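Deliverable D5.2: sample structural annotation.
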Amino acid sequence: MKNILITGGAGFIGTHLSTLLQKQGHYITILDSLTEQIHGDANYVPNKNVTFIKGDVRNARDVREALKGVDAVYHLAAETGTGQSMYEISRYVDVNEIGTAVLLEELAKCEKKDIQFILASSRSIYGEGAYRQNNGDIFQPQPRSYDQLNRGIWDFLDIDGNIASPIPTPSNLSPQPGSIYAATKYSQEMLATIACSSKGIPCTILRFQNVYGEGQSLRNPYTGIISIFYNRMRQNLPINIFEDGQESRDFVHVSDVVDALHACLDRDQLYKPLIANIGSGVPTSVTRLSKILSEISGFKASIDITGDFRVGDIRHCFADLTCAERGINFSPKVSLNDGLSRFTSWAANQPEYKDKSEFALDELAKQGLARK
């Protein structure tokens, strides 16, 4: 049994992780600021026997209190909206980078020196991910510009002028963030790698693909495409499919993500840092996703492919899971259809929240970061 701190533990992934770790007999402390954008004004009630600290990772006193007696730290606390990050730059840098710096600084002061540090990172750090040329060479495109997107040039071309084929993104692909959010996640990784190495702290970094599932916020208009689509479908609002609808994502169910996080506690060769992708390894177009979600939920909202776009969005990205398979014996178990069935069964019993996704897109358009 271990004493474990989860920053951001009252959030979507953190709640599932806390529940699993408790079942395994571990003692859990949660540090969370309960931001309104994610939690609204609802009262948060932690699981029984969980120590909950309402606090901020940027506050050294809160962090110091939360770290007392811990054996492992899961750092999940972060601002996560890709589009929002492009105009709320200072807030995203402050929470994600300064918060991580404060946490690592206080962690280094702990008397116990073998505390594990496990960071939740993001596939967004790869930018547009990996593609293969017709001659077999792998290349990594530059982020797409507003002008390129405005002209409807969605795809990337190979050296022969043909549309290039995306391939699973390996964890050794060079980071190339295309959004402020992605840049802050890569900064978190660098801070953790350097600080942990200097103090001999075991460090594991997991780069999540698009996580979804029961408990995901249905009120946050800035992140969680499945939640946003479901919320609009249940209100009979049209589903706005950006670009040409063929952009794809790697959707991974939260239970698979939590299994991967749990496996980090007992991984072999803790003295070696591990960086691994966590996903399903399967690309799904946004159009196909919307149709499957409509079929499973029973909602028949209009699905409109509009050509709208957001700067900072990627075209394709799906995970090469080799490092996760070797490092923590990870293999995803939940198919997209099964995961969406679980999600819709849960969401059907949740309150209906006013959709704010159009407001979020309007905000981006005013900043010159989207077209609608």
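Annotation notes: The chain has a mean pLDDT of 95. Residues 3-371 form a domain with the Rossmann fold fold (CATH 3.40.50.720).
The annotation will be released with the project's public dataset once the embargo ends.
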